[in-house]
Amino acid sequence: MSEILILGGRVVDPASGLDAERDVLLRDGRVSAVEKPGVLKGVAAAEKLDATGCVVAPGLIDVHVHLREPGQTYKESIATGTAAAAAGGFTTVVAMPNTVPVNDSVAGLEWMLDAARGSVVNLLAMPAATMGSMGVDLTDFSALRKAGAVGFTDDGKPVLEDEVMRAALTAAARLGVPISQHAEDTRLTGGCSMNAGPVAFRLGLRGMPVEAEARIVERDIRLLREIEKAEGLRPHLHVQHVSTARAMEAIRAAKREGLHITCEVAPHHFTLTDEAIGDYDTHAKMNPPLRAELDRAAMIAALMDGTADCIATDHAPHAPHEKEQEFERAPNGITGLETALGLALRVLHRGQGMPLLRVVELMSANPSRIISLDGHGTLRKGSVADVTIFNPATEWNFAAKDSRSKSRNTPFDGAPMLGRVQATICTGRVVFRG
Amino acid sequence: MSVATTRKAAEYAPGSLLTIENLSLEEVSAILAETARIERLPHAERVGMLAGRRVALLFYESSTRTRTSFELAAKSLGATTTLVSDKSSSIEKGESLKDTGLTLRALGAECIILRHPCSGAPFLLARMTGLPVLNAGDGMHEHPSQALLDLRTILTRLHGPAAAVTARPDSLASVTVAITGDILHSRVARSNALLLPKLGARVLLCGPEKLLPETALGLGGGVEIVRDFDAALKRSQVVMMLRIQKERLAGLELDLADYVARYQLSRERAAAYAANALVMHPGPMNRGVEIEGEVADGPQSAVEDQVRHGLAVRSALLVRALGAGRFESIRV
What we know:
The complex is a heterodimer of chains A (about 425) and B (about 325).
Chain A: E1 4-13, E2 18-27, E3 30-35, E4 47-50, E5 55-58, E6 60-65, H1 78-87, E7 90-95, H2 106-113, E8 122-125, H3 141-146, H4 162-175, E9 179-181, E10 194-195, H5 198-203, E11 207-208, H6 211-231, E12 237-239, H7 245-257, E13 261-265, H8 267-271, H9 293-305, E14 310-311, H10 320-323, H11 340-352, H12 356-370, E15 387-397, E16 416-426, E17 429-433
Parallel strand pairs in A: 1-4, 1-5, 6-7, 7-8, 9-12, 10-11, 12-13, 13-14
Antiparallel strand pairs in A: 1-2, 2-3, 5-15, 15-16, 16-17
Helix pairs in contact in A: 4-6, 6-7, 7-9
Chain B: H1 25-40, H2 43-46, E1 54-59, H3 65-76, E2 80-85, H4 97-106, E3 111-116, H5 121-129, E4 133-138, H6 144-159, E5 176-180, H7 187-195, E6 202-206, E7 223-226, H8 229-235, E8 238-241, H9 246-251, H10 256-263, H11 267-273, E9 278-280, H12 293-297, H13 303-321
Parallel strand pairs in B: 1-2, 1-3, 3-4, 5-6, 5-8, 6-7, 8-9
Helix pairs in contact in B: 1-13, 3-13, 4-5, 6-7, 6-13
């Protein structure tokens, strides 16, 4: 494999506590050297990348994406979704199982992870926790783990029943992987298409109360506690797309208690509120929905204080004809791979003073730990050569028409971004050039 | 910091009436003025105002008053109308609102009057077709023409016909309107609660929590929640009753007898607390549930006035939608 020499950049590597000007040498798919400027001057390398003015970070990792393959490739494929990921600076993505059919078997998982799918970056997957994500019978956790599963989730849906979630957390604990929970009490959200509150009232739409998210999170935390006590195991709950202050407060308390709980926040939940729906813009419709300002502020506070472990996009492509429907009928979800970094830097780094070290921690180091991805999330010598080079000062406007995704369902078309990816390197190969 | 994605009003064809929320007082005034002007026109002139113009009515929900009102208004101005209902069209085969709208446009429709069970549907239709769209009721959201005819009724009955020709910020100053019924699900309540305060009225929303959540206060200034119906009546010059569906009460676990005792406009209650108030109802009425028949048919009732004003107001709305009459200068 050829060498790449990255010169003149600022290495920001929270896992090794490094934020300094360093040159980086990649060789044979690994980080070969990270040295002060000048040290690597004489090294022969097939490719030299000029990273002047740029941050050189461990490749970004998104633990929550929907790639729509198999079964819905009219709106995204593994190839196009991962191309969008690479453009957004991601070198690893974790695919959710709500494909058609649901990814709940070893055959399905192996098919999805096969190189023939043409993934541009490292593709991992969390298969369903229950058969068909119906919430009744657990899938074969052990066999799926052996086949490469990095966790289990019924995403799109919650694992609702106490006993099923208890069994899932227990089984996953024995294998050392998390249950990634879409926390929604669907008994409280029937017919709802946005957040409950004055905006929903004004728009004449049924709204999901914050309790619908908080109650499931609180229930799951109780199960963690019970399993630790009863089984002597340490189950890992990863709460997906947290959107409410109340759920985040429960997570904060659970962490203080020492339970093994992690969580993710999506960029739209720290950037927008339910006011963004405006004149019934279905590009502002997703689940969990955009919430009130106090919830958005709580998401930001959690990202700042460590209660939130990572940023995950919940990239959810949909075709135009699907989103061009009446608001309550349109499917939930927006794309997000190519706007995550730009929003994180604009809203959190510039807007809230979050240090770049913490941004990279949220988008690389922590996600790698959540899914126990050894050798990733860091630029320590010997680690996998997954690198994201981005200019943290570039101000630009995202244009949906330029997206590498098949779909254009985003509320951020024309929105201002801060920071732009210059190059994405995956296992020592450049997979995107800005 | 929130990035809003609200489209500017300019994205919808002028002449559309999608919401009261986005309707300025000046526009309300212009509509009232044109309503009066058309009403006074000799028949021969009126019947030629929209001669040869094509209006499509797209009704996904059944309707007596609104549909007939718009149809008759259009025909009385000389327009050609066509009605597409979901029960007798390809909508039954799953054809989308977008495609239905584009088809109507291709068939020559110059404006579409839409009634739809989904809140926000008129926006979608307006965006997809670029045609002027008149919202004839979208889900729980708004029923703008109803609020305008209610306004004309109130102004005429309280202050006389001359007062109903214009809308000023103080046209309804010192007027309090109590709106009672299933407010949570009522587009009529929302539109009225948004319109009446623009003219200085105070709106009292009445009902139990399950039919009237506190989030209703988000409708804006001039809107109050009053749980005690009698107290609300004592303060009001206008009482607007909204239909209560028995099945909905049951679904929300509300006792019908209890509801009637607390919130029905009975003859007794009207005599005790609202003896001089104007009584209104958009229809259809569930006599014996939200209102007693005697009150609905009594001297205080303006129910038939409402229907008459509806025809007049909708005539003006059609003229506005098609850029005719005093609205000719507004290019579609």
